[in-house]
Every structure is written in C-alpha cells, then in structure tokens.
Amino acid sequence: MQFVFGQRAARDPTNLVLSEIEPNVFLRPFLEVIRSEDTTGPITGLALTSVNKFLSYALIDPSHEGTAEGMENMADAVTHARFVGTDHASDEVVLMKILQVLRTLLLTPVGAHLTNESVCEIMQSCFRICFEMRLSELLRKSAEHTLVDMVQLLFTRLPQFKEEPKSYMGTNMKKLKMRAGGMSESSKWKKQKRSPRPPRHVTKVSPGPEQPAASASNTTGNGVTFIDAPSPSSSGSSENVSSAVSPATDSGLELSSQTTSKEDLTDLDQVASLGLNAGIPSCENESLKEGKIQSASVESIPEVLEECTSVAEHSDSASVHDMDYVNPRGVRFTQSSQKEGAALVPYGLPCIRELFRFLISLTNPHDRHNSEVMIHMGLQLLTVALESAPIANCQPLLGLVKEELCRHLFQLLSVERLNLYATSLRVCFLLFESMREHLKFQLEMYVKKLMEIITVENPKMPYEMKEMALEAIVQLWRIPSFVTELYINYDCDYYCANLFEELTKLLSKNAFPVSGQLYTVHLLSLEALLTVIDSTEAHCQAKVLSNIHQQEKEVVKSSPETMSSTKETSNSKTPFFDFFYIKLTEKSIPRKPTRFSCILPSPQELMQIKKKKKLLITGTEQFNQKPKKGIQFLQEKNLLATPIDNNEVARWLRENPRLDKKMIGEFVSDRKNIDLLESFVGTFSFQGLRLDEALRLYLEAFRLPGEAPVIQRLLEAFTEHWRKSNGSPFANSDACFALAYAVIMLNTDQHNHNVRKQNVPMTLEEFRKNLKGVNGGKDFEQDILEDMYHAIKNDEIVMPEEQTGLVKENYIWNVLLHRGATDEGIFLHVPPGSYDHDLFTMTWGPTIAALSYVFDKSLEETIIQKAISGFRKCAMISAHYGLSDVFDNLIISLCKFTALSSESIENLPTVFGSNPKAHIAAKTVFHLAHRHGDILREGWKNIMEAMLQLFRAELLPKAMVEVEDFVDPNGKIYLQREETPSNRGESTVLSFVSWLTLSGTEQSGMRGPSTETQEAKRTALECIKQCDPEKLITESKFLQLESLQELMKALISVTPDEETYDEEDAAFCLEMLLRIVLENRDRVTCVWQTVRDHLYHLCVHAVEFCFLVERAVVGLLRLAIRLLRREEISAQVLLSLRILLMMKPNVLSRVSHEVAYGLHELLKTNAANIHSGDDWYTLFTLLECIGSGVKPPAALQVTARADNDTGAQSDSEVSSSYHPSDMSLDRGYTSDSEVYADHGKPGKMHRSVTDVDVMNSGWLVVSSQWASAPRSRSLTSPIQWDGGGNRGKKVKLLG
Q1: pLDDT of 1116-1152, one tens digit each?
Q2: Which residue would you say has higher pLDDT here, 1179 or 244?
Q3: How far lies 610's CA from each of 491, 497, 541, in Å?
C-alpha cells in the first residue's frame, strides 16, 4: 500500500503537500523495497523509478531540515540495493535504473546535501558497473556517461568550495581513501585468511542451471549484480573490513568465487563502502546453504589504509564490521549510520580531491591492475574535470597534478595504443593551457618528448603518432602568448633548453619532405610555423586599427586594447606594458625571475641573456672535458669573478644541470680545492634531515669518485656541515663520519650485483653490530639505525652516472620537482603581442622557405591558398615593423613562381596563361607591392624584371606601352615597334625591308595558333589586368621617399647591353621613370637630381641617334613643360634644358623635330613662367641650333679630344670660367646667367681643370677610351670608371 500510495503521490503531487512532510517519511517505503533482498528485479525497478520521480519532479524541498538525512538514506539504499535476479536482460534494466537514480540524485539541487562519503559511494558504484566487462556494452557506456555528468557537476562546483584546514583534511582523507589498483590473488587471499567469516550477504537464488564460479569476471552469464548494504563501522575505527563486496572499483576488478570477507575499498567513519554483488541463479531454495553458494561478485580489489592498519587489526578476531546487526535474510540495518544529533556536512573539496586522486591513479600505466579500459576511462574523466574547473586555483589538486598526473601522462606518451596516446595528449593540452605557470619543467619535458616522437626514426612507431604529436604542438602554439612564453621562459633561461628555437628549426626541417611528396606531417609543421605568423599578424592588425581609432578620437584611452595596441614590442616600458602592470596589481604580483631586472624585461636585456647563455653553454662543454679549462673560459668572459670566488663557483656547480656529475665530483674533491668543497657543501640545506636522507641528497649532486682518500675528503666536509645544521646530534665528528661511511657501504652491500654474488646481503643485526660502540664509545639509537637500514635496503642511493631504466626516470623526475620548487620554477605570463618583433625575426626565414616549398610542390587549392595567406601575413608584419629585408626576400621568393623570369619571350604568354600558380603568384606580388610598397627596397628590381618580361611578351595594358610624342599626329606612339633598327637614321627602304623580313618571320611562326594557345594568352592578359601594374606608377606618389628612390634606381639600372636589355627595354623603363616623376611632382625636388643625371647620361653620352635618345629628349621636354609651373623647381628645370645643347651636334640634329615641337609646346603653355633672361637665352640658343643648324656653343660641348687634359666641361665648369669670382660653393646648381653672361666674348681662354677642381665640382673621371671605342649598339655600354688620375673624359652628374 505504501508503494502504491507513493506511486500515486508521485504522479499527482497535488494530492499531498510533500514539502510539509519530512522526506524520510515518504521515501522510507521505497528505500526499504530497494534494500530488501527478497524483492525481484522488476519490483526493485519500480521502486527505483518512483524514487527517481521524486527527484526529477522536484517533490523534495531542498530547504527542509530533514532533506539532508533523507538524501543520505536514499544514497545509502540505492548504492546498497539488493534484489533477486531473474534473467540477464531484466537484471541489467534494474542496474540501468540504479544509474539513473544516482545520476538524478547527484545532479538535482537536493544532491547538494549529500556528504563526502555518499558522493564517493555513488561514484564508486558507477565505476563498478563501468569496469565490469561481463555486463553489456550498453550498460557500461551508460555508466560511463553517468560518470561524465557527475564529474562535470562536481568539478564545476569546485570554485564554490573552500579549502579545508589541514587537520580536517587529514582525517577526512583517511575516511575517503580509495586505492586505484587492486591486489594480487595471493595478497587478497592472505587478507581473507586473516579475517575469515562465513558469507552473510549472498544472493537470492532462483531455479536455473548451476553455473561454475567465474574466475576472470564478476558476473556469470545469467548473473545479476546486486548492490549490497554494508553496516557502518564505529567512528573510532581506522579500518573497515567489510564482508560486503564493494561495487566501486579503483582500478583492478577481480572475481572471487568465495563470499568470505573482503576489505572495503574505503574506510568510512559512518557509512561503510558500498558493495555490488552478482547473484547466480541456481537450483537451491530460498534458504541458503553457505557451503554450496556460488556467487560472482562485481568487486574491486579492496584495500584498507596501510598507514592506519596494525597487525592486530588483521587478526582472526571479529572486525568492527562483524558487530553490525544482520537479520536472517541478510539485510544489514544501517539506520544508525547517522549519529543522533550529528549534523550532516554537505560534500565539498575532500570528496573532489579524493575523486581526482582516484582518477589520476587510474592512469598509471605501470600499475598492472589498470587495464586499458580503465586508463582510457580515467583519462576521459580527467579531461572532463580539467575542462570544467580552474584546478590551478586549488592547491591540493595542483599538487597531484604536478607530481602524479604529469608523470603518468608522460609515461603514456610511450604506449603504442593510439587511443590512450591521443587522450593523453588532450589531457596534456588542457593542463598546459591553464596551468603552465605552475608546471615550467613539466612543460619542458613534454615538449622535448613531442620533439623526440616527431624526429625519431623508428619503423615500429606508427605514422599517426607523429601526426598527433605535431597536432599537439600546433594546438599549444595557438594558445595566446604561448610561443612568447616559450621564448622568454626557456630560450631566455640560462639552464633551460632553447625550446622555441629548437622547435622552429624542427618544424622548418619537417616542412620539407625528403621524398618530394607532401604528407600531413609536413603540412602540420607548416601550420605550426604559421601559427606564430597568424598571432603576430593579428596583433599588428589590432595595433593598426587602434591607432586609426585613436587618430579619429584624438584621445589616448586607457583601455587594454588601446594601451596594448599602441606599443611596439621593440621598446621596453611603455603604455603597453604599463597596462600589464596595472592588471598585475589587481591580483597578486608574480615573482620575478632572478635573471631579469623587471617582470617584463626589454628586448635588449633578453638579447644580453641569450648571449650570456651561449657563453655558459660553451663554458659548460669545456668544463665537462676539463673543469679548469671551463672555469678559466668563464672568467675570461667575465661570467665568473677573477680571482675565483668559491661561493660563486659552488652555486654555479649546483644550479647548472648541464654539468657532468663525474667532473663535478673530481673538481670539488681535488685537494687544491678544499675551500671550494666547503662552499659547495654549504649550498645544501640539511636541517631536519636524517643522516642517510642528507647523504642521499648530497650524493645525487655529483658522482662519488672511487679512491678512498677522495671519498674521505668528501664525507668529512659533508658530516661537518650536517652536524652544524642539526645541532651536533652524535658524540663527535668521527662518529658522524663513521655512520655516513657505513651507510655508503650498506648501499653497496645491498645493491651491488658483484658483491651480492659473493656474499649474502647484510642483515639489520649485522649492520647494528658493525656500528656497535662507534658513537663515542656508545651505541647509536637503534631506531635510527633500523630506519636507515630499511631506507637504504628499499631505496638504493644511485649515483647519477649509474642510473638506468625506471630508477633513472625516478631520479630525473625528482630533480625536476626539486627545481620546480625553487626560484628556477618561476614561469612568466606575458601579455599578447609582447616580443612579437623578436619572435618574427627568428621565424620569418624558416617560415618563408617552408611556404615557398609547399606552394611550389602542392597541387591542392586549399594548401596553395594557405601558403599565399602566409605570404601576405608575413608581408603585413614586415611592413608593420619596417623590416625591408624580410619583405624583399618575400617578393623575390614569390617572383620566382610567376614564371616570368624563367621562360623565353616566345613561350611566355602560353606558359604563363596556362599556369594557375603563376597567376596567383603574380597577383600576390603586385598586390603586396601596391599595399606595402613603402618598405620595398631590393625587391623593386625583381618586380621591374617581371614588368619587362610582360612588356616583351606584349601582355601589359595598352596604356602602359603608349607614350606621349610631339611629332606623331596622334600625340602618342607605341613603345613596341614592329621594326627594331639600331638607329632611326636608316633609309626608308632598309627599314621597310627589315620590317618586312621580321614581320614575315613572326607571322610564319605564329601561323594558325591553336585554341589552347589563344585561350592561354587571353587568360594571361586577364590576369595581368587584374594585377593592375599601372598602379605601381599612379600610386608611387604615396611611397615613402626611400622606397621611391629605390624604385627609380631599379628603373635607371635598365640600360642596353649585349645580353640582358635592349633599347626598347631601356625606353620602356625610361617612360615609367618619367611618369613616376610627374606623379611625384609635389616632391620632385627630392628626386630631380637622380632623373636629371639619368637624362644627362642618355643624351650627352650618345654618340649617334637612336630611339632611346629620342625618348630621352622628348622626356626632358615633357618634364620641363609639366614642371615649369612649380616655382621651387622651375629654375633647375630650365637649367637642365642645357643638356640638349651638350649633345653631340649630329645627334641633336636628328632630334630637331622633337625639340622644336617640344619648345613650341613649352613656350605656348609656360612662357609666363620664364622670368630670367638667361633662361630665354637658353631657349633661343636651342631654337637656333635646331632651326638653322648652328652648332651648340663650344663651351657646352663635352666632346673633348683624347689628348686634351682638360677634357669637356659641364655647365657649371663653363660658367665658372666666365665668372670665377661669383661661383658659390654652397649651391648645388649653376644658373643660366652664369653660363651665358659672357657668352660670345672672343678670346676667353678656359682654365685647365686640376684634380682638385674635379673633386670640388663633383666631376667623375671616365676612361678616355669611352668616346673613341667603336660602338656596336646605339648607346654606350655601362661606364667603366677610371681611377688612373686626371686623364680621361669628365662626366658631370648635374647637381
């Protein structure tokens, strides 16, 4: 009736106001059904369903005073449920409902009333089902998902719990102690023999075939798992030996065919640990016969607390548990589990710590009881825990992470099971993502292990492991500031590995496939390199946007984004770092590493530290070969004081982990270094340590030499320091020395294989006997000797050089933990964006090389686009920091992929048009030049080479190859002429014949072009149109002056020669140069010198007429027409027109039409801007020369005879001959008035030019053979400077 009433109440809560009733009242009937072992599975299942409804329908008032006790009773009943099994499927349905109730109980608000003990019991029950392999996979997976939800809830609540006092934590940890890992069968049997009892909690049996006892599992085929109800132990018991079979497994699950006493998994003060039994259907009646019952138990391998167990407690006498009342049916009464009047404390940090410790213990690969399923489950739940809570803020949990969890995870990285390996990597990522500031040396070991996995050449290692290791590195590198922290905490630490530098080299090397084929590992390596670029580029973009925002607002704001974005990382203390300091004051200010002068050192300081680190490594290497040589080297580099400071050297020997322990031992034990030995021993803190413990610490710092006198010196110094540190506990120094020596001898006797072969190891009594009367005629305390004996026997003092295997791993791990506890373990967090400049300068080279390789080899569109994206980001960063060398290198690399420089002109349109990669590369080159042209320097040459190739292949837009002309009726001419005469003085007939011949040849070669060829050329033209090369000219006015000058130099460098460039190439570059000058007319004064010199070179040095000379003359006149209106440059422009008068008469006459038309246009548009009579005289002289054939004034001619020392004279020198007294030394130009004031005066002799004059006036001496040598082309070859004194032609670069 109670059951039916409860069901009705659950369905219709309006029938009764349950909140006014104590929960125990209406829950008791259902809980009794659940506890009763006489009920069948379906009945128990109905009761469980009802209880679940009470919870899920929120019918229990969380604020009721009896709720806590009710929840305890519910947890106790459900975790100790018992029922009569029917069939396997039905029984598993009941177990599924148990899981459902436990999950609902913990996850609903009333679950907050549960105690620490109850939460542990609930978790253990779920683990029990999860690890029972004989249960169906569906049930085990359900238990797994239930555990995930529970762990997530518990760790999500972690920040709400306060850390308990240490005394409270100590007592409660004993109650909640669970051991991961079971006992062997033999050890379990021994414990059963110590406390034999007949089984009292056995399963009800039902008719069915008798099943043999299972030996490897905890249920049989038809078995059903029951939840047992153990009785409570008394509050004073330190051990609970329960006959109940615990359902909460720690790690090992074994089956027992006996239901004799089993030690509980936990030692609970009030509530014993729960047990889950599996009953076996048999032919027996309801009455049970002890001797014939066969029950399989879903059990853990329970173990009591060793530290709380005595021999007496393991005696055959009845345990505390035996005094619990159990009725004839086997039901244990547990109502007394809550003491009357005792307040139930809700669960908190103790159960979470115990759960965390248990999960960590499940991941121990060296525990033979931990199966692969258990390890994987432990890792999965640890992943949930780490994802749910900031464990770093909880000191008890952090200690477990530092020591046990990291150790187990690193060991799991060596397993071959990929699922365990992958899950371990995930947990490692979560650890170092949130807790790396506490795990400095653990992180170093982890990264080294990943690097080892990536580089090892082991054919047995699966390829997937390398892939996952690289993925782990990529994940780590994506953590904001992680790469920067690697650099500052390891590369800039004297005694840590250069993790960032080594990883960069490894990734760069790994991005280049040996076979030439790209695999995932190569792309992952590139991905890791690009991670640094991505984050740096994002920081740069943020700074740019923030600067724009600041300019708009004209207010400097103190927000983090603004403050951080206004800081260039190359500076030290600025608003960017000021904000970081402000943020630090809100929390506790972190400790500063001793090597730094402040929390965030300047880049200059870091460079000094890295330099010192290199010297220390060199000195260490020399020390490991010959100690004195290493010390001397460090003294020479001022890293150690001169004369030697023993204390300083001793500290260096202790803190430098790279030193050879054997060499340290030899050096400090040298009789010449007695003072150093005392200083070395003084660096140890022996206070409070037993002699053997201090000796163990001492001998781990160096390799003990084998000579007796040397050992004596080392031990004498040790014992003297130990006695002082501990208040001289023994009679005298000799007694202390003898005991220390005896400990070393005992260590050799117990663990040296050679000694053990010849003699039986020393016993405790023999050890005591050997030391009889040594302590000043008296004996040492026997307890101390016994402790020392067992410590040495169980844990060998292993010299650093002798360690191998697990012993060596333990030693390395202990050293790591010890270093982490000192100031060496300080790990600095840095704000995002700091030191980006330093990191980029270290990574850009390998990154661009890897990008180039991947771009070249890959055929996948996504990978190609990723490479291009990387190029663009590198370009943006280099532009942001003004790294011209990086940007030039990038442009040069990209230009190689455009195919513009490697293909012949005939094939270029086809090859380029049919190469999608070349299109992408070309578009990227021009895009970067348009966007970041400010920092282009050497790269302009490569871009101009590409432009020339496009010009030759006739792929440039029409506007770029059409130029202004004075003579042509259309006002424009086409730079790419169909005829290519060496000069335009050829007869019309010859020109026509030449044109006819060339035209015929070209047409024969191009007759009937294929559709593919036409399509390729069309595609090429479209691509170049999208590149918009003309923008380089039109946007040049926005270039920084230095970049503009480099662009002009690149254009000027294109002069006709025998191999590379022809006349049309030079003419094309000249026209581009002239257009750029006109685009930059607002700052033409900055570039006029360069242009005028180039035009002077082309016009004055030409010995015969050619197309290039024509374009130079037209260009000069076009500049004059456009620039005369600008007063700041008009005088220099008019002065430069005298270049035409300096041309050779025969050449000038050939360009008379162009000059005439040009002067006409100039006078028509700019006559009002010509104010000086000298300037008018220049123009009229030009008109006279070209109109009537008058030769230019001799004073302006540079055509000197080869034997004339004076050579030709420039305008400035001519003017100085007229007005030597008026010559201003400060001016960079000569006015026309100075040239022409005395023009026409007969008999004026020009002075001779001396070397001093040449130096002062800016003349350059050119070989005299230049003018007389025969010319095969229309223009001269590049000038060869003659350093042979005063003779030769003088060419004035106007200025």
Answers
A1: 999 998 888 888 888 888 888 888 888 888 888 888 8
A2: 1179
A3: 7, 11, 29
Strands (E), 113-246: 224-228, 241-242
**CA–CA dist 627, 659 (Å, integer):** 10
Check: CB of residue 99 under 8 Å from CB of residue 146.
yes
Question: Residue 299: enclosing H or E segment and its boundaries?
Answer: strand 296-300
3-state SS, residue 466: helix
> 1036-1039 — which CB contacts under 8 Å span 24+ positions?
1036/933, 1036/1076, 1036/1079, 1036/1080, 1037/1079, 1037/1080, 1037/1082, 1038/933, 1039/933, 1039/934
For residue 1062, pLDDT over 50 is answered with yes
In this structure, the chain runs to a length of 1295
Confidence of residue 1198 (pLDDT cuts 50, 70, 90): low
802-832: per-residue pLDDT in tens?
667 777 788 788 888 888 888 888 998 888 8
Scan for tokens 């060199």, then name that residue: 618
What letter does residue 212 receive in the DSSP assignment?
A: P
Residue 373, classified by CB atoms within 10 Å of its CB into exposed (0-12), middle (13-18) or buried (19+), is: middle
Q: Quick one: pLDDT at residue 573?
A: 38
Is residue 11 scored above 70 in pLDDT? no
Token digits for 540? 């740069």
Q: CA-to-CA distance for 241 and 598, rounded, in angstroms?
A: 58
With beta carbons less than 8 A apart as the criterion, state whether 850 and 508 touch: yes
Does an H or E element contain 1290, and which?
Answer: strand 1289-1292
Percent of the chain with pLDDT over 70: 71
Given a cut of 80, whether residue 206 has pLDDT beyond it is no
pLDDT number for residue 706:
80
Tokens read off for 104? 């609902």
Decide: 1168 and 1227 in contact? Cβ < 8 Å.
no
Q: Which pair of tokens denotes residue 503? A: 């990883």
Inter-residue contact 277 to 201 (CB < 8 Å): yes
**408 three-state secondary structure:** helix
| pLDDT, position 1134 | 87
C-beta of residue 1026 within 8 angstroms of C-beta of residue 921: no
| Residues whose CB is less than 8 angstroms from the CB of residue 754 and which lie 6 or more positions away in sequence, other chains included | none
- Run of H or E including 276: strand 275-279
Picking from 785, 784, 811, the residue whose alpha carbon sits closest to that of residue 699 is: 811
H-only helix segments in 456-586: 463-477, 482-486, 499-510, 520-553, 560-565, 575-586
Rounded Cα–Cα distance for residues 1291 and 650 (Å): 71
Q: Quote the CA–CA distance of 1162 and 1149 in Å, as a whole number.
A: 19
Identify which has the larger pLDDT, 692 or 1240.
692
Residue range 354-405, pLDDT digits in tens = 999 999 999 999 888 899 999 999 999 999 999 998 888 888 899 999 999 9
The tens digit of pLDDT for each residue in 977-1001 reads 654 444 444 444 444 444 445 444 4
Return the structure tokens found at 44. Answer: 């128990």
Beta strand 262-263 with 241-242 is antiparallel
**Reported pTM:** 0.72
Cβ distance 801 to 537 under 8 Å?
no
Tell me if 1020 sits within 8 A of 909, measured CB to CB: yes
Question: What is the β-pairing status of strands 275-279 and 296-300?
Answer: antiparallel
Q: Alpha helices of 986-1055 — where are they, by DSSP H? A: 988-1005, 1011-1027, 1031-1034, 1041-1052
Query: Residue 98 in contact with residue 106, Cβ under 8 Å?
Result: no
Which residues make Cβ contacts (< 8 Å) with residue 1140, sequence separation at least 6? 1099, 1113, 1116, 1148, 1155, 1182
Let me know: does 936 contact 929? Beta carbons within 8 Å.
yes
DSSP labels, 46-110: HHHHHHHHHHHTT-S-TTSTTHHHHHHHHHHHHHT---B---HHHHHHHHHHHHHHHHHHHHSGG
